[in-house]
Amino acid sequence: MNKSFSLQGSAWMRVALLLVALATGLAWRPTAVWASHIRAGEITAKGDTTVGALPGSRRVFFKMVLYTDIIGIPPNLVVTQPSVTIFFGDGTATCTPVPRSTPAPLPIPGNNDTALNIYYFEHTYPSVGTFTVRFTGENRNQGVVNMDNSLNQSFYIATTVVLGPTLNGNRSPVLRAPAIDKAGVGQVFLHNPAAFDADGDSLTFELQPSQKVDLLADDILGPPCPGETGTNTPLPVVVPGFRYPNDPSIGPNPLQVAYTGVPPGRVNDAAIFVQDRNTGQITWNAPGRAGIYNVAMIIREYRRAASGGASLIGSVIRDMQIVVVASNNLRPTITIPEDICVIAGEVVTGTVTAVDGVSPTSTPQTPVALFAYSGIIPPATFQQTTAGPPQAQGTFRWQTQCNDVARLPYLVVFKAQDTPTPITPSNQPLIDEKTWRITVVGPPPQNLRAVPEAITGLNRVTLNWNPYICANATRIHIYRKEGTGPDPGPCVTGIPASSGYVRIATVPATATSYIDNNPSTGGANQGFERGKTYCYRIYAEFPGPAFGASIASAEACATFGGRSAQLTNVDVETTSTTTGRVFVRWTQPRPVVGLTFDGTPSYVLTRGEGLAPTTFVPVRTITTLTDTTLVDTNLNTQDRQYTYKLEFVRTLATGPPVVETSPTASSVRITTVPTNLGTTMTVSWTYNVPWDNATRPVTIFRRGNAPGSAFVQVGTAPTTATGGSYVDRDPTLVKGETYCYYVQTNGLYPGIRYLDQLLNKSQEQCAALIPPPCTPVLTLAPTDCEELANQPEFPKPGDTYTNRLSWTLSNLPTGCDATIASYRLYYRPALTGPFALLATTTQPSYVHSGLEFSGGCYAVQAVAASGAVSDTSNVACQDNCLFFRLPNIFTPNGDAQNDVFRPKNSSPVRRIHFQAFNRWGVKVFENTTTSADRILINWNGVGATGESSSANAGKPVGGIYYYLAEVEFADFANTKRTYKGWVEIIR
User: Fold this and answer.
1) Which residue among 280, 569, 572, 727 has its CA within the 20 to 30 Å range from the CA of 403?
2) For 866-880, what is each residue's pLDDT tens digit?
3) 721 close to 687: Cβ distance less than 8 angstroms
4) What is the arrangement of strands in the sheet containing 458-464, beginning at the earlier edge strand?
5) How far is 897 from 901, CA to CA, in rounded Å?
6) Which distant-in-sequence residues (6+ apart) come within 8 Å of 231 by Cβ?
7) What confidence score (pLDDT) does residue 597 get?
C-alpha cells in the first residue's frame, strides 16, 4: 500500500462505502453503514500439543473471535472483517492477512444483530520469553456512549503468552460466554465471561478501559514483510473520553436499585460497575441511560506451585459490549443450585429454573431460554426441558472422574434470557445470570490399618491400606498424632494443622503400606513410647497445575502396653551463681506385660539452657535401672533456667542401641518487678514441663532482707500450662527495702495416681521495692531510598548505610522513675530473631553507621541509677530499599573504565541470575552472582563457554544484546523482580 495516499480510520471506510452505495444505486444511509463494525473480541492461545511435538516447542496456536455489527445493513454494504493482521510480540507480524474461517450470526435468540467471526493462526517463536500478541482493527461500531466518537476509534485486544521449559503446551484461558450482552435501564445487569483454564491454572479478573491504536495496521506493519517500514508493535492507548459505564457524567445520574446478590444493592446510592477478582462476575447496578457501552477486562493466568506460591504465565484482554435499552420489559430471574463439593466419581446433577419478570406495566411474561457456559461442557451437559411461562427449567449433569480433582472449584455460568415479541429497539431481550461452583475432591483412601509391633529393641507401627482408586494421584501423605484426633469436616481435604496431626512421611500414590519406626530429625529410629496410643490418617495429593487433594482416610490407631520413663521433678534446691543445685527425678520404665527389657539398660541425663534449648550437654549416665534421682550441682541457678532431657538407652548385642527419649522438663524461673509506684511487687514465673501444673495453684514464698529472715508463705495463685503471676500487695511492705521470693508448683500426670503431688521450687529472686524506670519510645529515621536510587552511581566503593535513632521516655508504667542513668540499645538485622546488645549510652540518640544494608530492627531499655532496667521499648524496624538500574552501554576495551556490565544503582541483593541474548534469541552469556560477590553480574563482554547454542562461546562479542536479570533483593520479604532490557557493547 502506498502510505502517502492512505486515509486514517473511518474516513477511508466512509469513502469506500459511499462509492459502493453510488455504484449500486442505493441510498446513502451513514448511520446504518457506520454502525456496522467491531463490537467486541478476544484472542486465546494454546501451546503445541500436536502429535510428534518436541519438548520445549515454541509453536503456539491462536484463535481470535470478533463480534461485528450486522443489523439492518444490506449484505453488499456490511463492513466485514474477512481477514486480519496479527502482531506476534517478537517483532514479526502476518505479512499475509489471516483469513476469517467462520462468519455466522451469534447463536443466541434475540442477538441476530451480531456476527461471530473466528480466525485461526499459529506462530513459532525464536526463543523462550514473554510475548504479547496484538490485534488492532478499524473501526468500532457507532454510538458507544462511554467514549468519544466511537466510530472513529480503532479496536484493540491482546493476549500475552509466556514460553519456558516448564510451560510446554500451556493453554490460555478460554472465555465460553459471548462478549455481547443486553441490559435494561434501571435494572441490575450481570455478566460472567465463563473463563476456563484447561490446565487448572488460577485466574484473576480486572476491569480496564477500552483501548485503541492511533495507526492503521498497514502503517504498523514492518520487516520482514516486503516493502513495509513499521515496527510490528501496535502501541495501545486508552480510547478518548473513556468512562466506566456507571460514570455519572454519562447521564442521567445513575442510581442503584434493590438487589440481593453480591454486592447487595444500596437503593439510591451511586451506581456501581464492578467485577469480582476471583470469579469474573460483573455487576452493574444499575444502568441509567440507554445506549451502547464498551469495557475491557484482563484475565491473568497464574501457575501455582506445590508450595502454594504462584507465577504469572499469561493474560487475555477481552473488550466486551453491553447494549442498554429503555423498556417496560423486566429481566428474568434465575435460580441455581447451592455451591457443592463432590467426591470424584460421583454424578453431579442440578436443576436450574427461571421466571420472566412481571410488573403491572411490563409486557406479558414470555418464554425464557436457558444457557450454561463452562469449560466442563462437554463432557458435562445442560438440557432445557421447559421454557415457560410460568417457569423455565433445565437439568445439568456431570459424571466426575479422578482427573477432575482440583484445588479450585469449577465454575458453571447459567444464563436466563427472555424472548419478548416483537423485538424492537425499545423491547429487547434481557438476561439474568448466576455462577455455580463445583469443587471436586479425591475420594478418601480406604481401609487404613495400624498394627503395633514390638520387635527386638524397638516398638514400631505397620500401616496398610487398600490401593488408591485414582491412578492420577501423585503421592500419599501420612500423618500421626498421639491420641485420637477430630474427624475432618465435610469436604475438607488434606489434614489441617488444627487437628493436631503432624505429617511424618510421604510415599508414592501406588504404595499400600508403611512402617513407622518414629525416626528422629537426624534419621535414627526412636521407636514408640510404651503406654501410649498413636493414631494415623492418610490422604492423596494430585498433580499440578490443578493440584487438589483427597479427603483424609478414617483414623487408625495403635496402642503400646507398658510405660516409658518420665521426668517428674526439676526442683531448684540452691540458688547461686556458681554452686546452684537442681534436684531431678524420673520414673522407672515398665516393659510390656509379660516381657522384659532386652539389652543393657541405662539412663542418659542431659541439660540445656532456657525453656526450649536446641543443644544439650551430658550430665550423667546411670547404669542402674532402679536409680531414678540425681542432684545436678555447681550451676548458675541465679541467672539461668535449665531444661533436662532423659534418654532410656538399651545397648543390644548386635545393631545400634535403642534410645527412648522422654519429653523434656524445665526448672521454674521467676522474675520480680516493683509495681504501682513501688508499693507492690509482681512475681512472674515460667516453665515448660510434660506434667500438668495448672490443676493446682502455685504457692508463693517471701522473706525480708533483715539478718535471720526466713521464707514464709505469702499467698497462692492460679497458673497456666506455661506460667503465671502474682501481685504481692502486703501493706507491711516498705518502700526501698529488698525482698526475696520463690514459688513452688504442684503438678501431676493426669490418670496416673502415683505421679501426683509433683512439687518443684523456682530459684530465689530478690528485688528492691522501688519504682521501675520509665519505658522508652523509640524512633528510627527512614532511609531516603529515592535519593539513593537517583544518584549517578550507588553504592560506590566505600559507600555504606547509616541508621539514625532517637528515643524519649514514656510515663509507663504508672509512677515510673524518669531519672535514667543509661540506655541499652539492641539490634538485629532481620525482621525476626534474637536481639544483640549494640551499645550502651547516656544519650537519648544513636547513629548506627558503616552498615552494608539499612534493613534491621532496634529496641532500647532504660537503666536507673539503682541498676533497675525498664521494660523494652517498641521495636522499630525498617526494610532495605528496593531499586536496581542497569546501564545501556559498557566498553570492555581494557582501559579499566566501564569494562564490565554491572548495576549502576542497586539496593542490597541476595542473588542475581543474569542472561544475555543476541537478537536471534540465542543465549551468549549466563551467570549467577550473590551478595558475597564483590561485583554483581560482572560480564566482561565475552560469550560464556559451555553455551552449546552459541557460536560466541569464549569469544569477545559486540553490538546490541538483550538481557534478562532475575533479582532477589535482600529485604525482609525476599522480593523477586525481573528486569528486561538491552545493552550495547562498544570495544
Assistant:
1) 280
2) 788 899 999 999 999
3) no
4) 449-455, 458-464, 513-516
5) 11
6) 91, 220, 222
7) 80
State how far the Cα of 883 lies from the Cα of 901, in Å rounded to an integer. 17
Q: Where are the alpha helices (DSSP H) in 443-527?
A: none
Residues 6+ apart with CB under 8 A from 722: 686, 687, 688
Q: Name the phi and psi angles at 4, rounded to 5.
A: -65, -15
888 forms beta bridges with none
**Residue 354 cell numbers, joined:** 427461571
Measured distance CA(144)–CA(151) in Å, rounded:
8
Identify residue 675 by its one-letter amino acid code: T
Of 765, 768, 566, give the one whose Cα is nearest residue 668.
765
Region label for 726, one of left (φ > 0), alpha (ψ between -120 and 50) or beta (otherwise): beta
- Which regions in the chain score pLDDT beneath 70? 1-36, 71-80, 103-105, 107-112, 307-308, 359-363, 426, 455-457, 521-524, 593-594, 944-953
Exposure of 542 in the CB half-sphere (CA atoms within 13 A): 28
Give tens-digit pLDDT for 529-566.
787 899 999 999 999 888 899 999 999 999 888 888 99
Burial (CB count <10 Å: 0-12, 13-18, 19+), residue 707: exposed
Q: Using CA atoms, how far apart are residues 882 and 969, in angstroms rounded to an integer?
A: 7
Q: 3-state class of 789 per DSSP?
A: helix
Measure the CA–CA gap between 378 and 357, rounded to whole angstroms.
31
The residue among 831, 832, 764, 422 whose CA lies nearest residue 576 is 764
The whole-number pLDDT of residue 497 equals: 86
Q: Angle CA(984)–CA(131)–CA(885) in degrees, nearest 5?
A: 40
Q: How many angstroms separate the CA atoms of 15 and 466, rounded?
A: 76
Strand pairing class (340-343; 431-441)? parallel
Going from the C-alpha of 157 to that of each of 122, 325, 473, the distances in angstroms are 17, 26, 39
The C-alpha atoms of residue 10 and residue 35 are separated, in whole angstroms, by: 11
Question: How many C-beta atoms surround the C-beta of residue 68 within 10 A?
Answer: 24
Tally of CA atoms within 13 A in the half-sphere of 98 that contains its CB: 24
pLDDT of residue 102: 72
CA atoms within 13 A on the CB side of 275: 20
Instruction: Give CA angle at 242 (237, 245), nearest 5°.
Output: 140
Place of cell 479450585: 408
Q: How many residues does the chain have?
A: 987
Give ∠ CA 492-495-500 in degrees, rounded to 5: 125
Cell of 650: 538399651
Q: Alpha-carbon distance 417 to 437, whole Å?
A: 21
**Is-contact 400 344, C-beta < 8 A?**
yes
Q: Give the model's pLDDT for residue 521.
A: 66
Q: Sign of torsion, CA 842 843 847 848?
A: positive
* Contacts with 435 (C-beta within 8 Å, 6 or more apart), sequence order: 192, 279, 281, 336, 411, 412, 413, 414
Residue appearing with cell numbers 436499585 = 257
